[in-house]
From TrEMBL:
Protein name according to UniProt: GTP-binding protein
Biased composition (Basic and acidic residues): 19-32
Record-linked InterPro entries: Gtr1_RagA (IPR006762), P-loop_NTPase (IPR027417)
Source taxon at top rank: Eukaryota
């Protein structure tokens, strides 16, 4: 498979178990032409591409979209058969650490305040989820132990590919650290080379100047204990998160990205497009749960990904008011642009009803929109192709 992006146009100009289980399956379709603007930030959802492509291309696109829809339907009809080797994530950590809240907030649109009323988890909850372009995975939410006991951990973690360990940063962390290390030790001694993604969670409850110290103290303690257990080079990442800000989406995006086999290829494509189109940053984002499936490899500040989440919110709000499944706010050729007063332009374009490309660029007198349109359309097709062989192969089974 070629990892390059075929057909990108360049410009020389500088402008250019043992327990009961509950099973949940989340399948979404549809997305949201109208104009939207306000004075300080002008935003538009415009049908900007039609004059650039001829009718034949339009028909081809419609046909392609029809095929895609059929394919999606087929996938949805037989989930188990279609994605038998999907990643399986286990949410693990002491009781009340925040496992259920995270799932409800990201994937069920519960507000942070509503999570205060969540009851204790009594049985395993299995969530079959899909993010954007055919990225499918399972998340298990399990009753959190009250002590460092590993009772039932073998059943909970069977066939899991990643453990998302939630550690409440507002409490004394020693029990949680012991549980984390003993879980890793159990996995190691049973020959399971599973990645641990550790969320140092409820960080909003820690005084701001102490947060980095808390993070490095926990990380150091875990590293020392793992070394003492002779676990060298463990597969472990640490994130500071809270459901009261954007950090949980950012961390979960990285966790989901670690599950995507095509991630490097996708990043290569995005790098090529940013370089050839003079974009500052480009993201592939699931518009329903605001999970970033990939971005180009330039470093990104948190504020920028927060801005992207905001543009997705604007888009979904307008879609829910004005769009219907039969007539979405954006069709395959349209885009949504938001000009910020700080001199940045955000540009949203759909890849399919659930996935969008979000580009960030500096506002310049002459943005080469035609070049951007052409390259983003090529990128869109290439992304679909990248995920298609996988889907077709699975569909044939
Ligand atoms: N301050 C703060 N509270 C949080 C955060 N995340 C979750 N909580 C709160 O933590 C409490 C426990 O959350 P749950 O999601 O029920 O915890 P759990 O780990 O699923 O608990 P069990 O079901 O007992 O295993 C709830 O009151 C949430 O509102 C966070 O980021 N910050």
């Amino acid at each position: 498979m070629s990892y390059g992006l075929q057909g990108v146009y360049e410009t020389t100009s500088s402008t250019s178990t043992s327990k009961d289980m509950e099973y949940h399956q989340y399948l979404r379709h549809d997305g949201p032409s109208r104009t939207y603007s306000n004075d300080s930030h002008s935003s538009s959802i415009s049908n900007g591409g039609h004059h650039r492509l001829d009718e034949i291309e339009d028909e081809q696109l419609e046909q392609e979209e029809g095929e895609e829809e059929q394919q999606q339907q087929q996938i949805d009809d037989d989930y188990e058969e279609i994605a038998p080797d999907r990643p399986r994530l286990l949410m693990w950590g002491l009781t009340k650490s925040g496992k259920t809240s995270i799932i409800k907030l990201i994937f069920e649109k519960m507000t942070a305040g509503e999570t205060l009323q969540l009851p204790e988890t009594k049985t395993i909850q299995i969530h079959e989820l899909s993010c954007g372009i055919h990225v499918r995975f399972q998340i298990r939410d399990v009753p959190g132990p009250k002590t460092t006991s590993l009772l039932d951990f073998d059943a909970y973690s069977s066939e899991c590919t990643t453990i998302v360990f939630i550690l409440d940063a507002t409490e004394d962390c020693s029990d949680a650290i012991n549980l984390l290390v003993s879980s890793m030790q159990w996995m190691h001694s049973n020959g399971h080379n599973v990645r641990f993604e550790v969320l140092i969670h409820k960080i909003d409850g820690v005084h701001e100047p102490d947060r980095l110290d808390r993070h490095s103290h926990i990380q150091q303690q875990v590293t020392v204990m793992l070394h003492e257990c002779s676990i060298e080079e463990p597969l472990i990442n640490f994130y500071m998160t809270s459901i009261y800000d954007h950090s949980i989406h950012e961390a979960f995006s990285k966790i989901v990205q670690n599950q995507i086999r095509q991630l490097r290829a996708l990043e290569n494509m995005l790098d090529l497009v940013t370089a050839s189109t003079q974009l500052d940053k480009i993201f592939v984002c699931d518009i329903y749960n605001k999970i970033f499936l990939a971005s180009d490899t330039k470093p990104v500040e948190s504020q920028i990904s927060e801005l992207c989440c905001d543009v997705v919110d604007v888009y979904t709000d307008i879609s829910s008011i004005y769009g219907t499944s039969k007539s979405p706010v954006l069709d395959s050729m349209s885009c949504c642009t938001v000009e910020l007063s700080i001199g940045l332009v955000l540009y949203l374009k759909n890849i399919n009803p659930t996935t969008a490309l979000i580009c960030i660029l500096k506002k310049e007198p002459r943005i080469n929109e035609a070049l951007m349109d052409v390259n983003l359309n090529i990128l869109k097709k290439n992304i679909q192709k990248l995920f298609l062989p996988n889907t077709k192969r699975l569909a044939r089974r």
